Amino acid sequence: MRTLAMLGALSAPWVLVFACADADPPPVVELDAGDAASPDRVAPKLTVRDAGNDANDDWGKVADRPTAPLVSLDLGEVAAGATVPFDVPANALGFNVSIRAKSSDRGLSVSDVVSPDGGAILSGAVLFNGDHPTSRTFYGDVAAASVPGSNHPASMPRMAAGTWSVAFTGSGRGSVRIQSTPDGAFHGGFVDMHVYLPSGLVLDDETVEAGNYAAIKGARERVDAFGEAMRDLYGLERGNVAFHLVDASFLSVPDTRLASLFKLTAAKGDGQALHIFIVEPSSKQGWWGISGGIPGAATMTGTSQSAIALATLGGPDIEGLVLAHEMGHFFGLSHTSEIGGKGYDPLEDTPRCSDLTATKMDQCPDLRNVMFAVGALRDVTTSPLQRRVVQGSPIYRAFLSGEAPRPKAARAGDVGALFGHPGVPLAGSELVVLSSLCGHPDHEAAVAHLARATPRIDLERVAAAPGAHRVVRDRARSLAALSLP
Ligand SMILES: [Zn+2]
Question: In this predicted model, what pLDDT tens digit does every residue of 121-174 receive, in sequence order?
């Protein structure tokens, strides 16, 4: 059994970025589209206003600039297993293809995507060069796939023009949304955002309510930090931002209500935007950040996979980076290496960690990558192929010409503050606690394994640490119960 002693010797502060959009559905989900008793059937209690409580507040607005129109193709009602053709123009950067089931279908997936020359871009819900499925449904109402998602020559660097085809494992309404520019090259773009805040949420000592939700300082700071990170990591810029107030019943969201939360996006309608929920962490939910899919249902609202969420624990800088990680998932990026030996992303230019155990984490060559499964050190980076995947998503409004921002390492916050010691690197037991903040069942098993290899006294010390976040202490306490005396 490995020990975690080496992790205490880390010389740089750890900045961990979670990491919770695996292909497997959460363990208990009762709130799918077909459940008549589900809160999903109740009209969302949503107040909708544009950013800013008054017309003079321009914080959420960006200067007008011409952007490429979104190309949407309705594939109509499609049958399970049918091969459905659609045309992709010569100037496309990528597309997101999805299916919405008529009734809940837990086996739903985008199973196959074939390029005009017959290339298998996606096969059995596994991307070319991939080793695990990513385009399966989470909750049974929708499934999506993004192309390019990996380095098949028909999809990157340039998309092949002509007639592509897709097949799904279930029946429902199929659609394709295509990102393009006049010359088929990436010139940057705006990511417009809808940010949803529940009534009663406390952000850095300010409480969200009807009179102030559009001007909450902590929310704006997190969005600003997110905007900086997405520019540095993906070459995209923060676009127009609108805040929305949601009912206090969504203040903390157990995994069983995540689908209901993300379906609230229906109130804003389809279109090119990223939908973000900021909520409180709770004991019934194990994530810091979470994405509605790899990829999510891009530009589609009202589905269980239409958004990302942040359960706020830390400061704006580090949570901006958490959002950049979840955005990566939502746009189609997998973890570079998965905890528990589940596999790797399908991209050849991202480093891989063959031993992602606690004792070896600090030696992982991908630990600076934004899609590292457990965390990333300061100066977080992306690879060229990762950026190419993100730039193929139809979610952003693409600029028609000009130079995109040059990629550079993203600035990150200090996770030591979560443990009551700002600026001080995390000990190995603290890393184990932090990695446990992901709530997916397979990840939980891997984390339990790590906990058993951690001295109980060290975890109990974290549980009692003065100044540590309540969620951190609670987690440490439950992990201590799993560890050996
Ligand atoms: Zn992740």
Answer: 999 999 999 999 999 998 999 999 999 999 999 999 999 999 999 999 999 999
Whether pTM exceeds 0.85: yes
Same domain, yes or no, for 199 and 324?
A: yes
CA of 18 to the centre of ligand 1 (A): 5
Comparing 360 with 348, the larger pLDDT belongs to 348
Cα-to-centroid distance, 21 and ligand 1 (Å) = 5
- 140 and 211 fall within a common domain: no
327 alpha carbon – ligand 1 mean position (Å): 9
Which of 21-30, 293-302, 312-321: highest mean pLDDT?
Answer: 293-302
| Torsion over CA: 470, 265, 316, 448 (sign) | positive
Domain of 81, in residue numbers: 71-180
Ligand 1: centre distance to CA 235 (Å): 20
What is the total count of domains within the chain?
Answer: 2
Instruction: Please state, rounded to an integer, the average pLDDT across all residues of the chain.
Output: 84
> How far does the centroid of ligand 1 lie from the alpha carbon of residue 17, in Å?
8
Please write down the long-range contacts of 129-135, taking CB distance under 8 Å and 24 or more positions apart: 129/346, 129/347, 129/348, 130/334, 130/343, 130/345, 130/346, 131/343, 131/344, 131/346, 132/23, 132/338, 132/342, 132/343, 133/23, 133/109, 134/23, 134/294, 134/334, 135/109, 135/110, 135/111, 135/294
Is residue 202 scored above 50 in pLDDT? yes
The Å distance, Cα 241 to ligand 1 centre, comes to: 24
In a shared domain, residues 55 and 142: no
Listed residues: CB within 5 A of ion ligand 1: 19
Task: Give 132 Cα–ligand 1 centroid separation in angstroms.
Answer: 15
Q: Looking at the predicted structure, is the pLDDT value of residue 33 above 50?
A: no
Give residues with Cβ within 8 angstroms of 38, minimum separation 6. Answer: 30, 31, 32, 260
C-alpha 449 to ligand 1 mean position (Å): 19
For the stretch 369-382, pLDDT in tens is 999 876 665 689 99
Ligand 1 centroid from CA 330, angstroms = 10
CATH number at residue 332: 3.40.390
